[in-house]
Amino acid sequence: MEHAKFNDSLLEFLNQSPTPWHAVQQMVSRLEAAGFQALDEREDWRLEQGRGYFVVRNGSSLVAFRSGRTDPLAAGVRMVGAHTDSPCLKVKPNPELRRKGYLQVGVEVYGGVLLNPWFDRDLSLAGRVSFRNGTGRVEDTLIDFRRPVAFIPSLAIHLDREANSNRSVNAQTDLPPVLLQTSDEGLSFQDLIKAQIQSQHPGTEVARVLGYELNFYDSQAASMVGLNNDFIASARLDNLLSCHIGLQSLLDTSGDQPALLVCNDHEEVGSMSAEGAQGPFLSSVLDRWCGTENRNRVIARSMFVSADNAHGVHPNFMDKHDENHGPLLNQGPVIKVNHNQRYATNSRSAALYRHISEELGLASQTFVVRSDMGCGSTIGPITASNLGVTTLDIGVPQWGMHSVREIIGVQDGHNLYQVLRQFMQWEQVNG
User: pLDDT tens-digit profile of 53-73?
Assistant: First the structure.
């Protein structure tokens, strides 16, 4: 897949994926179009060599794999991991706030959100809703308003003279978005959700909304930016970019070698869930594919690549990086190293990546956090410790991580895709 086509596909994927459920839905559509077969965790699996399969858990996490034409026991499995969730504002269960004729909703901060950029944005709303239908059955559906329906107005500087020098955000009192102005005291948030379900899914009868997982998102579409279109700006680049890269790599690999993609939910809040990287999802799929008695032997021949974005050097804050480890946008993916095991990279996993990258004539970079600063983490160390698999942490450099709108270079995603595609068909990855 050439550079421009790759980025066009990325922009479409980002715009269609405002929540983890929508992202998984988009990935499933692309997998099915490529002939991958859905597997149900509740049923028996009959897997064949040379076929593609996928499994979805909770609608928000996915494992897809090519069984390969070589036995995993002899070849190992080439694995790539990413996460479907991003920091955001999630609607509380009893959210209605009525103040001075305005209907607002209470929100809970999900993950390490950079809060200030959420003010004065055109916000939309999307997620999963559970409801009782007209026959008394409980159903789930996805909704997406796909237009600006809310905003969080800033307080005017005339009323907050310290705003530019000393502004902090109170997550409880400062963040409730304004939805509408109304004199109808009986209008509830659930009424609005019910109306959206019926508008988006004509013919669906909603007797009662029973629960939801909804989040606000920036309605501005992903786009190319910069005088020469050097950059891509979008919400949720961390880490839907890596989901897209991993998926496209799996779809475009030869299929000769056993290869797998896992996209977990809940990374931004610690990964401890049934569908998170600390849960049993990936190991369960591997057991059913390779056999419980063989899994450790397969893992010993395997390698896992944790793909999650890296901190690019901000030209206004260059001192926030180690002087020898400051990645630049459009200069290649970033091998992430932390000897305190916040990243799982070791010399062997890094060497294989550099080898493949150099064979393809592609650049790479290295990130090490300043020694006087704390380091973030990824699903890499979690998966490495759970499975006992050799692991690499790598990612595309970006600006504005965890902001409502993030920035990457136009070249780096395609670069990483080329290397991961080759990795997924590499004959020997750990042996």
Answer: 999 999 999 999 999 999 999
pLDDT in tens, 129-167: 999 998 999 999 999 999 999 999 999 999 988 888 888
Helix axes 347-359, 412-423, angle to 10 degrees: 110
Candidates 379, 359, 375, 378; CA nearest to 367 is: 375
Query: What is the rounded CA–CA span in Å between residue 77 and residue 290?
Result: 10
Q: How far apart are CA 110 and CA 1, in angstroms?
A: 34
Locate the domains of the chain by residue range: 3-86+235-423, 88-218
Asked whether the bond before 239 is cis by omega within 30 degrees of 0, the reply is yes
Task: Say if CB 205 and CB 141 are below 8 A apart.
Answer: no
pTM of the model: 0.96
Q: Assign domain 88-218 to a CATH class.
A: mainly beta
Q: Which H/E stretch holds residue 351?
A: helix 347-359
Strand, helix or coil at 358? helix
Residue 381 corresponds to which tokens in the numbers above? 């160390």
| DSSP secondary structure of 40-56 | -TTS-----TT-EEEEE
